[in-house]
Structures are given as structure tokens and as C-alpha cells.
Amino acid sequence: MHNNTIYIVLGVVAVIYIVISMNNRRVGKDRKSRRFMDGYERKADKKRDEDRK
Question: What keywords were assigned to this record (predicted)?
């Protein structure tokens, strides 16, 4: 048992790393796919554009 302890610890660390990595990848993909900010302009920019017309 004592000879395999390091492999068990490394395996648990690897599993934790993989789970965190997959979660971060999913969150990043969700963030990139957001569409609610498409075409967003600040109110000041909109007002300037309307004044130019």
C-alpha cells in the first residue's frame, strides 16, 4: 500500500485537474457564445451618431 501511495495521490490530482479544466473550457465557450451584447452601442455614441445625421 505504501509503495502505491504516490500514484494514488497523483491520480487524484490529475482527476481534479481534468475536471477543473473541462469546467473552465465550458464556461469560456458559454461566454464566447453570448449574443446579448451584439450591436451594443453606448448611449453617448448613439447620440453622437444621431447628431451627425
Answer: Membrane, Transmembrane, Transmembrane helix
Sign of CA dihedral 17, 22, 25, 30: negative
CA angle (35 as vertex; 31, 36 as ends), nearest 5: 105
Determine the longest span between alpha carbons in the chain, in angstroms.
79
Measured over the CA atoms of residue 45, residue 46, residue 49 and residue 51, the dihedral's sign is negative
Please tell me the distance from the alpha carbon of residue 40 to that of residue 31, in angstroms, as a whole number: 16
pLDDT tens figures, 13-43: 999 999 999 988 887 776 666 655 666 666 6
CA separation for the pair 22, 44 (Å, rounded): 40
